[in-house]
Structure formats: C-alpha cells, structure tokens
Amino acid sequence: MTYINISIFTTQHAHTRNNRLARDVMLTNSIWRPITFQLDEMKQLPFIFYDREISYTLPFAQQPKVHTMLQSCLELAPNSEIYVCYVGGNYFIEPHVIGCAYSQRYYDTWKGFIILTNAAASYANMYTFPHEIGHILLTRNENTRLTNADPDCPLGSPHHPDPFNLMHGIVPGPYHTRSKFPLLTSNQLQVALNSPLLRK
Ligand SMILES: [Zn+2]
To answer: Does domain 2-193 bear CATH number 3.40.50.720?
Structure first.
C-alpha cells in the first residue's frame, strides 16, 4: 500500500457541516488511487481568519498569523507530510482564490500545506481539496530546487491545459467532468506515485 499521512486542522468560522472533512478525504482517496490518505491528527486551532485576509502571493513567512498557524500544525503532528487548514471566509485577498497549496523545505525533504476557505465547501467546488493535494503530490526536486510544474506542461505551469483535468487552473466541478475519462493523466499519477512524501 502506498500512503501518505495527512493532518486536518479547523479554525474558527470554518464550515464543517455536511461531513465536509470526510467528503474531502474520501474524494481525494478515490481520485488519487492507489495513493491512500491516512488521517494522522485532526484538531481545532485557536485562530480566526476572515474573508480576504490571507494572500497566496505574499510569502506566508510575511503573514504572521498564517505562519504561526502552519508552524503549530508542524508541531502538533510531526509525522504528517501534508497539513490541511480550513479557514473562515470565502476568498483569499486575490479574486476568486478559494484554496492554495504550499511546500516548505523540511530537513532534506519538504512538507505540504493546504489552506481552504469556506467557498471550497460547496458541492460545485468539491474538487478543490484533491486539486490542492495534487500540487503537493506533483512537487519534486529538479536541479536542487522544488518545482510543482504539471508533468504535462513543458512550459512549467503548475496547471494543466485541459479544462476537464483535475489540475486545470479553474478546477473542474462535478458538473464539468467527462465521466468516461479520468480526471488525471497517467503522467500525473506516475509523478505523484514517485513523490518522496509517500510511504510504502
Ligand atoms: Zn492550482
């Protein structure tokens, strides 16, 4: 079995109704099969984030509250490879952004961090969580630097050109998928399966 340890953190005002957290993990397991996502820790954190408070273009190290939150995740669940934080509000500062993924160096490897707003809770946006997980799984070392370029994008974009692909910049929704075709290409799955974050 190929698995990865993830921890889930909720903050105040983050919506968790309708089994959102379980849905996100189950959906991600089914899309990224055969990779299994094992829940390591699940905790509520004493942080409050409001709408349009977090920027995804400004480094998190320059946003003290976000930085403190991510470092507490690391301390609370040192055995996880991916940390998912659910925050309040619907958007980041940047228009339309409802989730982001970020890899931080950690000794000779790295850890993945994902932040999701309440807008990612809706049915239409349910592929946001597996999409952000994809950015972490597709991160790899290339010539001593980390890249999360999509393996099908020779120009180095982290997003796939096919609007029906999970890794498209505008994440497809359940109304916008080709049921007979997988959401991922075999290239993407292959790169993910080679991620050093995976355990066997
Ligand atoms: Zn993306």
So the answer is: no
